[in-house]
Amino acid sequence: MDRAEILEKFRARYTVEQSALFEKALQYAEDVHHNQRRESGEPYIIHPIAVADIVMDMGMDAASVTAAVLHDVVEDGRDVTLENIVKLFGAEVAQLVDGVTKLTISGKQTYITKKQEQAENLRKLFLAIAADVRVVIIKLADRLHNMRTLAYCNPYKRMRKAKETLEVYAPLAHRFGMGAIKGELEDLSFQYLMPDEYADIKRQFEKQRSDREAVLDDAMRHITEQIAEAGIHASISGRPKHLYSVYRKMQRINGSINEIYDLIAIRVIVDTINDCYAALGVLHAGWKPLPGRFKDYIATPKPNMYRSLHTTLLSENGIPFEVQIRTQEMHRTAEYGIAAHWMYKEGRTTQSMLDRKTSWLRQILEAKDTTEDSKEFVDNILKDFLGEYVFVLSPRGEIFDLPKGSTPLDFAYRIHTNIGHHCQGARVNGNLVRLDYKLKTNDMVEIITSNSQAGPSRDWLKIVKTQTARNRIRQWFKRENREENIQRGREMLEDTAKRQGQALAPLLKPENTGDVLKRLNMTGLDDLYAAIGFGGISSSQVLHKLADQYRKTAKAEALAEQLASAPAAQPSQPKSKPLPVNGIIVHGDPGMAVRFGNCCNPLPGDAIIGYITRGRGVSVHRADCTNAENLCKDPDRIIDVEWAIGAETSFPASLQIHAEDRAGTLLEISALLSGMNISIQGLNGKPTGDGKYVVDMTFSVGNAGQLDQIIRSLKHLKCVNEVYRVHR
Questions:
Q1: Residues 473 and 489 in one domain
Q2: Is the pLDDT at 402 greater than 60, yes or no?
Q3: Given a cut of 80, is residue 146 above it in pLDDT?
Q4: Could you give phi then psi for residue 718, rounded to 5 degrees?
Q5: Residue at which a domain ends, from 479, 508, 541
């Protein structure tokens, strides 16, 4: 779609004033992206136009479509600010653009790892969605077009984008009931992440295609005739099941594609709910239904407000096929989910639907207030709201979705905080169960409460699955057991200091604690102890902050003393830093032995953490190392470490190179490294059988910057396709 086509399409749907603003936005986007190209080589403006077109096709309002065409101008444009967008296009459009704009990695906003950067951006996105749900429509449209053109990206980027799409954006589309976008995002991700499995299922589909189409055409003809004879006005169409959905189902049942009954589906779209049930009666009278395969999602909608009747029928030759019966309104909701709200012209029912679909967003805002770490915040959302879940019923028949593995306690806190706090027991399907019982789909759950229950138990933190429940329990202990938390926190800090060989008394002097308390937004030491006691901050983190402030204060005092006593002409000498061990400075205990984790091979310039081992000193890991994430679960043994500036030490580094399988490949790579005075310690190359060649190599470097230079140089070789840093 080009400029003229998108303008014509917009003008046909929106007012003159809205069209004028959109044309202005389109021109602005064209100016900003003027010299930019996509990885396909096409002009970049094609992308925002395509995103705006997708958003428009979903029936969204004019502000959303205008924001869609502007969605990359702040992120990619030189000297374009959000203030510019507010001034030119208004606060509403600017807010939507800001919602889909990634955080800028400059100035104060720096990131240790790619994972951290991703977490920060996802946190910003989720909070923007909670503030204005239209943000998710624009973001999903953006991701959909990028996935449709993913073939032009390099292999590493393709895998990263596809993985993120499958783990975050497809579940997000599902949560908002956007079935059409969810299905396409999953299939596109599936194609790149698991190409062999994708090709195999596609091949099996194509093999049976003619038989399926014959069954489908025959069934549709008969259904059309039967429903017309019954006097029911209906629109009938067929649709294939998404390949990834087939793959997931095969994994679940541990069976073959022949065991899946809904590979082919017929949709019957009628005028009213009464017509839905009337059409169902006609079909069951004329066809043999498969037992146990009928589902009434009209009477009991899914939590994402999906409504439809599902039944599986057998054709004359015994091939099963699924029929979905729904009204036009239900169909729009099934395809477009939350976006369907803007399609409807009625007001009251759609607002009610919108409120029900977005009620879970309030819990995201609650999580924001109780979780400071971005990665933890995002992980909680992925687990609590976007992961696999079960459907349970309250005694009143209300349906609740909870993460798979949730317990009655999670259900109690989902209903209301006080019901959770006063929970004494639970009945599931009329039977008493333990509080750690794992809920299953269709369980009816009744919570037994008692006013004599003073509050939650600390053991509940080990039982609950959802972060929502965990946060509410922690908040109770923070508020109700302050004195106990203070005592526990004081003891925990003393124990940590003792283990690290740190004298605590000097660190707790008022002149040292003032700045620390201010930075943590606390008024006194009791607040600090209480936070440690209820788990709001770890004792090792606090000790590190206190020790760091003590060093700064001592250094300033020493310098002031030198200035006061030294002759005017004599400059004072700064206090020396601790001596490095293996190029590493260990704060708090500079005499400890230092070794590097073989799992990640950190280099100077990498963000690192230190872990106090038993008997082997400090183990140093990259901050994004998988093992480091596990080690951080024991925060009292984490110690502050840093690279010694100018340390003359070499470190092992490993790369994997994907190159063309041709004569001279190894020679070119070796010659390049030799020219850079790099000493190769290990080199192994092998063909993959598809015209490609994989080279694993190990060598010594001084820092991460040198390694980055090596990677950039290798990528410039014509025979090299991609280079990856690997851990041994």
A1: no
A2: yes
A3: yes
A4: -65, -30
A5: 479
- Alpha helix ranges (H) inside 194-239: 195-207, 209-229
Q: What is the model's pLDDT at position 497?
A: 84
What confidence category does residue 114 fall into, taking pLDDT thresholds of 50, 70 and 90? Answer: low
Pair (160, 34) in one structural domain: yes
CB-based contact 641:618 (threshold 8 Å): yes
- Same domain for 150 and 280, yes or no, is no
CATH of residue 472's domain is 3.10.20.30
Q: Which of 430, 447, 479 is the last residue of a domain?
A: 479
Co-location of 608 and 660 in the same domain: no
* 435 contact partners, CB below 8 Å, separation of at least 6: 407, 408, 409, 423, 425, 426, 460, 463
* Separation of alpha carbons 585 and 592, rounded Å: 10
| pLDDT tens, position by position, 553-565 | 776 566 555 545 5
pLDDT tens readout for residues 242-264: 888 888 888 877 777 777 766 77
Catalytic position from the list 23, 30, 61, 76:
76
Q: Are 138 and 106 in contact (CB under 8 A)?
A: no
Write down the mean pLDDT value for the chain. 80
What pTM does this model have? Answer: 0.58
Closest by Cα among 459, 480, 451, 356 to 409? 459
Examine residue 362 and state whether it is found in any structural domain, yes or no: no
DSSP strands (E only) in 521-640: 584-586, 594-596, 608-612, 618-622, 638-639
Helix (H) or strand (E) holding 6: helix 3-11
For residue 47, being part of any structural domain is answered with yes
Which of 53-57, 155-159, 242-246 shows the highest mean pLDDT? Answer: 53-57
Give me the helices (H) in 422-536, please.
460-463, 467-480, 482-499, 504-507, 510-519, 525-534
Domains in the chain, number? 6
| Torsion on CA atoms 300, 306, 311, 312, rounded to nearest 10 | -140
Query: What pLDDT, on the 0 to 100 scale, is given for residue 108?
Result: 34
Domain with residue 306: its CATH number is 3.30.460.10
Q: Work out the burial of residue 649: count CB atoms within 10 Å of its CB; fewer than 13 is exposed, 13-18 middle, 19 or more buried.
A: middle
Q: Give the pLDDT band (50/70/90) at residue 43.
A: very high
Assess whether 665 and 526 both reside in one domain. no
Q: Tell me, yes or no, whether 474 and 515 share the same domain.
A: no
- Residue 461: domain span: 388-479
Instruction: Give the gyration radius of the chain's Cα atoms.
Output: 31
Same domain, 215 and 241: yes
| Residue 689 Ramachandran class (φ > 0 left, ψ -120 to 50 alpha, else beta) | left
Sign of the dihedral through C-alpha 653, 659, 661, 667? negative
Q: How many CB atoms lie within 10 A of CB 421?
A: 19
Cα-based distances in Å from 330 to 136, 324, 339, 450: 21, 11, 13, 42
Catalytic: 75? yes
Do the beta carbons of residue 282 and residue 227 sit within 8 Å?
yes
User: In one letter, which amino acid is 529?
Assistant: Y
Catalytic hit among 5, 8, 75, 355: 75
* Contact by Cβ (8 Å): 519, 545: yes
Mean pLDDT, range 172-196, rounded to an integer: 89
Whether 40 is in a domain gets the answer: yes
- Rounded CA-CA distance 129/581 in Å is 48
pLDDT of residue 280: 95
Co-location of 147 and 75 in the same domain: yes
Q: At 687, which CATH number?
A: 3.30.70.260
Specify the pLDDT at position 561: 59
The Cα 238–Cα 300 span in angstroms is 24
List, edge to edge, every strand of the sheet that includes 720-726: 680-687, 692-701, 651-660, 720-726
CA pair distance 728, 507, nearest whole angstrom: 40
> What confidence score (pLDDT) does residue 495 get?
86
Q: Count CA atoms closer than 13 A to 580's CA, side-chain side.
A: 14
Query: Helix, strand, or coil here: 581?
Result: strand
